[in-house]
Amino acid sequence: MDRIVVLTGAGVSAESGLGTFRDKDGLWTKYDLAEVATPEGFAADPAKVHAFYNARRKNALEAEVNAAHEALARLEAAGALIVTQNVDNLHERAGAKGVIHMHGELMRVLCAACGATWDAPREMAVGEACPNCDGGPTRPDIVWFGEIPYHMERIVDALEACELFVAIGTSGEVYPAAGFVEEARRAGAQTLEINLEATGGRFDRRILGPASAVVPQWVDEVLGA
Ligand code: APR
After folding, report:
1. Could you say which of 69, 101, 103, 151 is catalytic?
2. Is 69 assigned a catalytic role?
3. What local confidence, expressed as pLDDT, does residue 47 receive?
4. Dist. CA 9 → ligand 1 center (Å)
5. Considering only CA atoms, which residue is closest to atom 25 of ligand 1?
6. What is the pLDDT of residue 147?
7. Is-contact 206 193, C-beta < 8 A?
8. Which pLDDT does position 167 carry in this prediction?
9. Which residues sit with their C-beta closer than 6 Å to ligand 1?
10. Which of 32, 86, 124, 200 is the most buried (most CB within 10 A)?
């Protein structure tokens, strides 16, 4: 199983009530991402950005894991790697231990001055000092548009060594994650997409349906349960 790399997106947490970004009524239909998900937006109005992430953190804390998170935790325990674009902690709350959060985490704070990170309070506010350098500004530990995703070396190494790459609940609209399927194909891996509908990615196989129903079935198939 240690040759399986799973990439998850907002679709894996959609049935936990966290919504997605680009579906009908998605987050980016309600907020201007330039104002709440870019360094420029944070510099211009940090209070607005904190309010946006405080609301998402509250939703994530009130959400329940779903059967897809639980099945993926079982697959990880058998050796698979989970890379997620999601910033919620539902994979962890379902028991996953080594999830790579390439877009950061709602439950962590980052000091923009010294790079220190620590667990986030329920609500963040403007002007909180960094406990490490007493500077700041402190910000949600989220990778914003225009910033470099985390752990890319580890992810590329895993893609180059994988035999099966599985994209679950992601539209494949945002790079570099959207390019992982091509990296896996170059490495000779089989590729599988699990989603409500087919996206534009070049996958060898597709399983269409809601993640909480089809992911546990697929994991059972893989684990030979
Ligand atoms: N089961 C499976 N797939 C689902 C479900 C579901 N219940 N509900 C929605 N989906 C699928 C949609 O069909 C879509 O392909 O999840 C995908 C959600 O796509 P996006 O909203 O674009 O979310 P995502 O791909 O995770 O976005 C990537 O963009 O805004 C940035 O940083 C943000 O991490 C995010 C990145």
Report:
1. 103
2. no
3. 97
4. 5
5. 170
6. 97
7. yes
8. 98
9. 9-11, 14-15, 20-23, 26, 85, 103, 169-171, 173-174, 195-197, 199, 210-211
10. 86
Mean pLDDT by runs of 10 across the 225 residues of the chain is 94 95 91 96 97 96 98 98 98 98 98 96 94 93 98 98 98 97 98 97 98 98 90
**Model pLDDT, residue 6:** 98
**191 φ, ψ (degrees, to nearest 5):** -130, 140
Residues 6+ apart with CB under 8 A from 199: 167, 170, 171, 172, 193
| Residue 42 domain boundaries | 24-62+107-142
Give residue for tokens 């990615």. Answer: 201
Beta-bridged to residue 130, according to DSSP, are none
Q: Residue 223 maps to which CATH number?
A: 3.40.50.1220
pTM to 2 decimals?
0.97
pLDDT at 19: 85
CA distance 136 to 149: 21
- Burial class of residue 177 (count of CB atoms within 10 Å of its CB; 0-12, 13-18, 19+): buried
